[in-house]
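To whoever is on call:

I kicked off a structure prediction for a single chain this morning and the downstream step that reads the tokens threw a length-mismatch warning. I double-checked the sequence; it's 125 residues and nothing unusual in it as far as I can see. Pasting both halves so you can look.
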Amino acid sequence: MTNYEEMARTICTLLDKKLGKNIVCLDIQNLTVIADYFVICSGRNPAQVKALYDEVEDKMAQAGHPMLRSEGYSEGRWAVMDFGSVIVHIFLEQEREFYHLERLWDNGDNRLQLHLDEDADPAKG
């Protein structure tokens, strides 16, 4: 596992703990030079999109990974966070459905298996 993969997985865990929905991590190293990983997540409303963003920004800065640039925070509809090799997209659900980044970047075998919120799995009792 690369350090960038670990970073992407850490971000997914942070989003999950803040109740982000439908978290996906795509390994895009072989598809583009803009980044190694995309993390995609949904929030239920603009306040949650901002809270998810704030959590990732704060915790990653504390871990020594400051954000390089971002867009979209003020409206809370779609925030993009650039950590260099990991780019995070936090959408309102309807915005995510409209842009559907997974359709553009998921090639069928580049989705990382995430083990998030396993305690909430109803199959585990």
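Update from on-call: the warning came from a stale cache, not from the record. Cleared it. Sanity check on the structure: DSSP finds four helices and five strands in the chain.
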